[in-house]
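Entry type: protein chain
Record version: 2
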Amino acid sequence: MKKTIVGLGILLSLAACGDKRAALPSTQSPLGLERVVLYRNGIGYFERHGEVADDILRIRVRRDQVDDLLKSLTVIDESGRALSVSMPLDPESWASAALSSLEPGRGSLAQVLDGLRGTQVMLHTTVGRLRGRIVMVEKLIEEPASRRRDEPRGPQLRDYKVTLLEGDRLKTVQLSKVNDVTLLDGDLAMQLNRRLDASAGEGMFQQIEVAIRLAGADKHKLKVSYVVAAPMWKPTYRVVLPEQGDGSALLQGWAVVDNTSGEDWNSVDLALTSGEPIAFEYDLHTPRTVGRADLTESGVRKRAIVAMGETTWEEEPEEVEEEAKLAEADFDDEDMAFNEGGGGMGRREVRAKDRKAKKKRSSMATQSAPGGPVGGMSASKPEPAPAPADGVALEALRRSTQASARAQQVSGQTRFVLQDEVTVPNGSSTMVAVLNETVDAEQTFLYRPGGAGIGYESNPYRVVRFKNTSGFVLEPGPISIYAGGSFVGEGLSEAVGANTSATVPFAVEPSIIVSSSLRHEGGEMQIVRIVRGVLEVENFSRAETTWTVRGRDKDGYTVLVRQNKSGSAYELQAPPKGTETLPNAYLIPVAVPKGKVEGRLKVVEQTPSRTTLTIWDGRAVGLLDKLMVHTSVTPEIRKMLQPIVELRREIGKIDTEIAGLQTQKVEANQRLDETRKNLEAIKKDPAATALRKKLSARMDEFSKQGDELARRIVELQSTRLEKKIELDDMLENVDFRTTPTEKKGEPPKG
């Protein structure tokens, strides 16, 4: 909410509406502003230097920024010391609890009145006027009086009952009958008006005086620094390509700085920091109370207990409320302070050394809006004007721009430190040149999945690729591209670190068509190792993508295709020359040869997932058979494995036969049981003598068949056990690995 109001005030100020509230600066101090460091996360570091001929330094700060100042304020007194920092309490902190419900989208008249308990009010109602102190506001739920008992329950009417105390009489009235309320407490009415002023954007521009007590000398030479909210600086770049398209290009960077502090920044040292230092809001101005346990009754809650046979006295356990657990924010004033190595104060020696040199240098090359340029664009030694050229030429633009900034690494963040003092009037946006470097660049084409937009689904982008050798981290921002003496497009880049490459699309190339086809293969398994009867197996899945690029160009060209990875487990097989790996994709060059219309490239991704099987697994026989015919198996290995494979195949046949016999035995037992039940059913029937004989003979047959099957199964199981022992002995010393070529290549096809 506060940020929205601040933004509105700034907008009105820049629009020159003459709002007096916005004229109040963030801070007012007798010390001169000498250094400003702006960040990309909505804060600014301000450093003031000067002398005070009193024992109190008074700084006036805007209400919305007092908390930031308190948690980051540092004072260095070269001739004394700072004793304490004091300020008046915010009177709104003593306002009634009802005022806290007045945030937009929250609160109701019933909540406000209930928060004003004990306050003298005058209620103007439809039945007359009621005066008194508010006792309570109760919720009422009434049903329509016209509803009959047999009618369904309809919507209920919700109302409130307000109770007032006048002398010794309690009066009640429904809130729906109240037309208006008069507050008879003038102080409360004033506080309510102040809260409404703050909600309307007025209260935040009021200032609070912070007094810093000093001791030790009559005059104090001070350095004061603090951090308060400030607009983030915004980068913008341009790349000027050479006429031949590839080679040395010009990379220029500008920073847009907004001064909404309420005061002019006259000849200040300005630095711009990239990165994301942590900064947060924390209320240090409003008083906070801490809840405590009430132990008043703990010493008197005693009573006697009578037990059978004897008398005793015993205290009940004291009922003590559990003390509230307060989460104290771990805050350290030094977290937001800065020193010389970290971006803070202590530059007096450097400033004294460079003061004369700075006076000889020209001011920083800047462009200001509104109000035109701030300072000139001249170097320390004037150069002759370049010869007239058509359009924007690379060398002419390089000579016409002065960017005197140096890079610093501060706690992992890159800082642009401007070498010349900068003037930024209040309420203006100023562009400051910070980068004017030569980099290696090239033009090429880039195809992303989905193409270059609606209507260009099959077309690539025309892109510029350059390596950031400037030593600076380039923050995200727009990049304008110039080639052939004119503007050819613009793009947007992510943050580009030092010595890293960037690929920036700036135009669509409709003359080139890119298409693809995808084919999946999977489920193929192969043995990669055998150790004592344990098979280590790879399961291969393949994704084969064929890219086709069509377009006529007599000189030939290359399109970078951004192919998303098929999955985290997939690996690119035999990457084409020039392939670049991204976090979730590949940049794969697809070339169209000189004089050709089409270029084609096949890209294979493969995912080997490994698992283990025992040699007794049903899939082991098939895997062993494939291994025996694979070309990578040498004759010596094949000779060693041959008896193992044959013996495992014999055991497999025995297992198959045993499984078949067990099925037959189950069927024979089922028939035997059915026949026994039928025979039992006709046991006492004198007319079923012949049927009983027939069923008895069948029972004997099924029983005999079952015995034969059981005997055969036992014989086979005995044979299988002997062969299993023999196979285990063969596998005891087997440690077979496939060759590296086989492991990395395609799975066997046998």
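Comment: Residues 91-144+157-192 form a domain with the SH3 type barrels. fold (CATH 2.30.30.100).
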